[in-house]
Amino acid sequence: MVKTHSAPGGPAGTEEQGARSPSAGRRGDRSAGPSRCRRRRPRATAGSGGMAALLISPTLLVLALVVLYPTIVAFKESFYGKAGLDPETGFLNKTAPFVGGQNYADIFSPAGERFWNAFWNTSFFTVTTVALETVIGVAMALIMHKAFRGRFLVRASILIPWSIPTAISGLLWRWIFNSHGVANEILGQQILWTTEGFHAQVAVIIAEVWKTAPFIGLLVLAGLQVIPREVYEAARIDGANSLRQLWHITLPLVRPALLVAVLFRTLDALRMFDLPYVLIGAHKHSVETLSMLAQDEAANVHFGPASAYAVLLFLYVFLIAMAFVRLLGTDLVGESDAPKRGRRWAVRRRKGLTA
Amino acid sequence: MNARTARALQCSSLLLAVGLAATACGSSGASGSAAQDEPEFTGRGPITYVAGKDSTGVTKKIIDRWNTNHPKEKVTFIQLPTDPDTQRQQMIQNAQTKSDAYTVLSLDVVWTSEFAAHRWIDRLPADEFPLGKMVKPIVETGKYRGGQYAIPASSDGGMLYYRTDLLKKAGIAQPPTTWAQMKKDCAKVKKLPGAKGMSCYAGQFHKYEGLTVNFAEAVHSAGGEILDAHGKPHVDTSKARKGLDFLAASVKDKTIPKEATTYQEEDARRAFQKGELIFARNWPYMYSLVEKSKSETSGKFAVAPLPGLNATGTSSLGGHDLALSSFAKNKATAIDFMKFYTSEANARLALKDGSLAPPYAKLYDDKALVKKYPYLPTLKRSILHAQPRPRVVQYGDATAAIQREAYAAMTGNKSSKQALRDLQKSLRDAVAQ
């Protein structure tokens, strides 16, 4: 399996803006910038419109070739069934029969049990791992942001898991979760982690959080570093303790960066494949995700069902990405019409300082 | 025509796609069936040899020998992981992309039907290979519908490894031939002061291809079958149930340690080598490794045929056959290399250095070799009476179903009866396609 990055429209475009947005938001608040911009924009782009289209056309062409085309073909493939065996020659037929929506309808038959299991596993892993990663990642970022002796070492050690390829970390954790492994040694029990059951899910969650919490930490750290020191100074003068500062300054101001990180992790977790595959193995009911199911069907030369599962996973990921942008999009774009209470508090404080 | 062009394009670009990468490439085969029926083997130059992990180092030795004699037709060894499921999937992926990266494939004996039916491998000129000198059941594993698609390189039969020192101390003269005897012997050995904390028996019971092998052995050893003579599933029988019951009940009464449900071949070897097991089922490759290991077990073990329900059991037929990828280049070199690799001299080397069972009947009766390897007569018996795992085109579906049901029964999630009934149904679906 080639590890690919799913980028259904939204996230790729918002990343940059999201990371920059804290400062952008402040500037927007201070001046009548947006309206001035709106007036100037048509004139600035009208003349270079054709040039702009020309310049982005190679990108669009590549995207159409590597994203749009395969998506359409996979969609088409999902309407085909399994190739039959020619009883005369003993060879499989070269063309698969057209079966219409049968592959999709099968999901609602008793045979669809495997799909729904994979669907719930995928959702379960996404919710649990992203929730844990967010909490741990923010904590990591706060630690990395603090100035203290040996900060370099702490930063490096936090980032190491993120730099290890997932398959390798899967192998590492398989040794840890071996029946005679470190995990059992520490717990003083013999849990067979790689067998079917809830413990296998726990093993996957632990390894996944270990691996990707630093990613959230890294993005949040970037968000933390653009918060100006004066804001905290003002808060201290006003007598806000550190908990209050965290809640009313740090978190609101780092929120855009955090949301981008969470969105990325969510989309990534929904496609989870390599970690459960390497750590626990194929055909394992308790950890089989949608990607694993689609891959397994494809490996067994059932392209129709495999494509159908992949299309459904694609739609699922797409819907969640859309929902993210819709629900939280105002902040992802950086221009919030109705800032949250905490944020307004911080901004008001800052205004008071500069005025 | 249109469809074919579309598929070709799809193959080259789809791997990069979003979450849909898994569905890469359609199922269409190469065009022109005439080329398939009478393949021409032309072209000389560098080729590749693709096989699982070379844990004994023999493959490398054979390839090195070839490369020194054929500097212009060098063979590159592509090592795949130990896990057979992964090997098969990588080879299938290579075939689906019609890549010429793999030339000669080392196929597990059970994959021949599937690869041949999909036209991923070429039909070979059987009369150019010394198949007459090989053991007949082994040669059969390379056949599909009468055509020879693969040439046996090594065979494999499961054997019962046992600790001679412990059995002797417990006053047991002969290794067990039935499961009941084995359990009784274990009870005696466990009373010895030196055998504290040891487990009785283990095979390969992780949910992977090895479980299919061990399940098939248990069923066949109890007189049951998985497919009948016409290739139709016939596993929901009382005989088959006795076989599965042996595995399930043994886990329950701790004859088989619970952690054996995570064992692959190497895990079982490690456990036996470390002195955790009295009896272990494994392939011949383990013999020389344990012997050379300098552990407390080396020199204190021997092999016997697998035990069964009422008499000696039946092994699954293992081993590897060499096949030629349909999409490869330099096929003339490939055929020559296959002849070289499967020659008697190299089979002897593989046996000497890696204790890989040779396909040549003569080597089993070779007095010098038997003297060096006392287990050869046992192995010959195991192979001659072995039963193949189910040979179906949709082998992936069949083996996944077997693993699922056998695992459920062994971990106590299903009764053996229910597991076999469900298996019968799943196998019927897999074979019907």
Automatic annotation (TrEMBL), chain A:
SUPFAM superfamilies listed in its UniProt record: MetI-like
Domain of life: Bacteria
Location relative to the cell: Cell membrane
Key word Transmembrane present: yes
Region (Disordered): 1-44
PROSITE patterns per the UniProt record, alphabetical: ABC_TM1 (PS50928)
Cross-referenced Pfam families: BPD_transp_1
Matches recorded under Gene3D superfamilies: MetI-like
Family in the record: Belongs to the binding-protein-dependent transport system permease family.
Protein name: Sugar ABC transporter permease
Automatic annotation (TrEMBL), chain B:
PANTHER family: MALTOSE-BINDING PERIPLASMIC PROTEIN, MALTOSE_MALTODEXTRIN-BINDING PERIPLASMIC PROTEIN
Chain segments carrying region Disordered: 28-48
Keyword Hydrolase: no
Classification via SUPFAM superfamilies: Periplasmic binding protein-like II
Source taxon at top rank: Bacteria
Pfam families named in the record: SBP_bac_1 (PF01547)
Keyword Signal attached: yes
Residues annotated as signal peptide: 1-30
Identification of the protein by name: ABC transporter substrate-binding protein
Family statement drawn from the similarity comment of this UniProt entry: Belongs to the bacterial solute-binding protein 1 family.
InterPro entries for the chain: SBP (IPR006059)
Keywords, sorted A to Z: Signal, Transport
